[in-house]
């Protein structure tokens, strides 16, 4: 058994929530709903170490694939990347290998028998950072467990020491608890003196990004999905600013290539061709840890359909062994109205027993400054959507 659920929820949840809020995790409850599960999932050491290997190897696989895509506009279109970003993707230089994105998270299905399958990569704007870097180590300590997540702060510091942003932004900064808390934690852990702003307060004058009347922004971390520059008012102006180097955005523009779920289809196609693009070790890792993925609906049964830029489960449809639609996410926004779909072999999440009922566990693993270094547990339905819960994951010492 890879996972074990330990602990009993405290009878004084409000006091526990107060303590977490003091640490910076202020959304343990969302309205009247309990977002945080007051228990701990413990992972077998061997499975965790294999997960680290899978993430490190696949990280370089995705890096190679993104460089294969750069400059090929037919592939930009195949990946559903908005045209407004194409000139910038062509003209700007990619970061060094392993650092196209410095703030990312893999999401895996890891079953109780130890099978590890990658579901997707959020290489642009992953949330869950506060839960993983702040709440998880604290919760592991409550159960006398050591958390590998304690190193996350140091990797963020190293990442932003290199990128050196002066501003950090998200939409509804100061109003949206999760995004604001994520930005505040990243800024605090960076060790930098930075100004936090609301994306909606930014304005662009002949390519120059400004906030207020006097302040010009030249380097900014933005918790803002880059694909929305093809949709939002002002998106084209921001894309132009990035392309013309008036502003450097972090994660960099090329992280949108990694973000598209269509890149998994390109990886799988390059793997299936049996060429020499990937090394023998990389091909073995793709075969073992990735799922057959395609940009066309060629799978006949046991597959998943989702938007190439879907988030929080909003576009996910699961098909059963007969090829019939079994379940789809009805709560989240279906971004496939804007972006193409990808089709992936199905790998169900393991079901664990919690105090408030059985739930499926999604295992997230952050990659910060190129280093796999932080576990994030999300528990909920067979599709991990907006209604899912946060549960901390610790690792056994042996």
What labels describe this entry?
398 residues, alpha+beta, eight-stranded mixed sheet, 22 strands, 28% strand
Quick overview of this protein structure:
This protein has eleven helices and 22 strands.
Structure report:
The protein has 398 residues and is of the alpha+beta class. The protein has one domain. 31% of the residues lie in helices and 28% in strands. The chain contains 11 helices and 22 strands. It has helices at residues 13-23, 45-69, 73-78, 86-91, 129-142, 152-163, 177-190, 235-243, 255-259, 262-272, 280-289; strands at residues 3-6, 29-30, 33-34, 36-43, 103-110, 116-122, 167-170, 195-198, 202-205, 208-211, 215-217, 219-223, 248-250, 293-294, 303-307, 317-319, 325-328, 341-345, 351-354, 357-368, 371-380, 389-395. It starts with a strand and ends with a strand. The mean pLDDT is 96. Keywords: ATP-binding, Ligase, Magnesium, Metal-binding, Nucleotide-binding. This is Glutathionylspermidine synthase family protein. InterPro entries: GSPS_pre-ATP-grasp-like_dom.
Write the layout of secondary structure elements.
Elements: E1 3-6, H1 13-23, E2 29-30, E3 33-34, E4 36-43, H2 45-69, H3 73-78, H4 86-91, E5 103-110, E6 116-122, H5 129-142, H6 152-163, E7 167-170, H7 177-190, E8 195-198, E9 202-205, E10 208-211, E11 215-217, E12 219-223, H8 235-243, E13 248-250, H9 255-259, H10 262-272, H11 280-289, E14 293-294, E15 303-307, E16 317-319, E17 325-328, E18 341-345, E19 351-354, E20 357-368, E21 371-380, E22 389-395
Parallel strand pairs: 4-22, 7-8, 7-12, 12-13
Antiparallel strand pairs: 1-4, 2-3, 5-6, 5-20, 9-10, 10-11, 14-18, 15-16, 15-18, 16-17, 19-20, 20-21, 21-22
Helix pairs in contact: 2-10, 2-11
């Amino acid at each position: 058994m890879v996972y074990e659920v330990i602990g009993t929820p405290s009878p004084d949840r409000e006091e526990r929530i107060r303590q977490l809020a003091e640490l910076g995790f202020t959304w343990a409850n969302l309205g009247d709903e309990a977002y945080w599960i007051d228990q701990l999932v413990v992972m077998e050491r061997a499975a965790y170490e294999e997960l680290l290997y899978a993430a490190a190897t696949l990280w370089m696989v995705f890096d190679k694939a993104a460089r294969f895509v750069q400059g090929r506009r037919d592939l930009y279109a195949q990946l559903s990347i908005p045209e407004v970003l194409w000139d910038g993707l062509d003209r700007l230089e990619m970061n060094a290998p392993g650092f196209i994105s410095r703030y990312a998270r893999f999401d895996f299905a890891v079953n109780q028998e130890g099978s590890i399958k990658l579901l997707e990569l959020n290489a642009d704007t992953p949330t869950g950072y506060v839960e993983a870097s702040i709440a998880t180590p604290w919760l592991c300590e409550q159960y006398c467990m050591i958390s590998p997540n304690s190193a996350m702060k140091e990797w963020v510091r190293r990442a932003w020491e290199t990128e050196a942003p002066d501003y950090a932004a998200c939409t509804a900064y100061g109003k949206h608890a999760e995004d604001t808390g994520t930005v505040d934690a990243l800024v605090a852990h960076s060790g930098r003196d930075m100004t936090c702003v609301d994306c909606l307060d930014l304005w662009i004058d002949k390519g120059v990004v400004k906030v207020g009347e006097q302040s010009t922004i030249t380097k900014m971390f933005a918790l803002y999905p880059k694909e929305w520059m093809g949709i939002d008012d002002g998106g084209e102006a921001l894309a132009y600013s990035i392309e013309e180097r008036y502003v450097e955005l972090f994660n960099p523009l090329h992280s949108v290539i990694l973000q598209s779920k269509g890149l998994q289809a390109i990886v799988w196609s390059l793997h299936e061709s049996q060429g020499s693009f990937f090394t023998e070790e990389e091909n073995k890792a793709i075969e073992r840890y990735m799922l057959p993925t395609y940009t066309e609906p060629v799978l006949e049964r046991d597959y998943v359909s989702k938007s190439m830029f879907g988030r929080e489960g909003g576009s996910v449809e699961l098909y059963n062994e007969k090829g019939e639609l079994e379940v789809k996410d009805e709560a989240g926004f279906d971004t496939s109205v804007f972006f193409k779909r990808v089709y992936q072999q199905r790998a169900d999440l393991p079901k664990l027993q919690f105090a408030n009922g059985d739930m499926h566990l999604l295992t997230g693993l952050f990659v910060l400054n190129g280093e796999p270094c932080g576990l994030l547990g999300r528990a909920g339905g067979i599709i991990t959507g907006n209604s899912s819960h946060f549960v901390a994951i610790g690792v056994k010492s042996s």
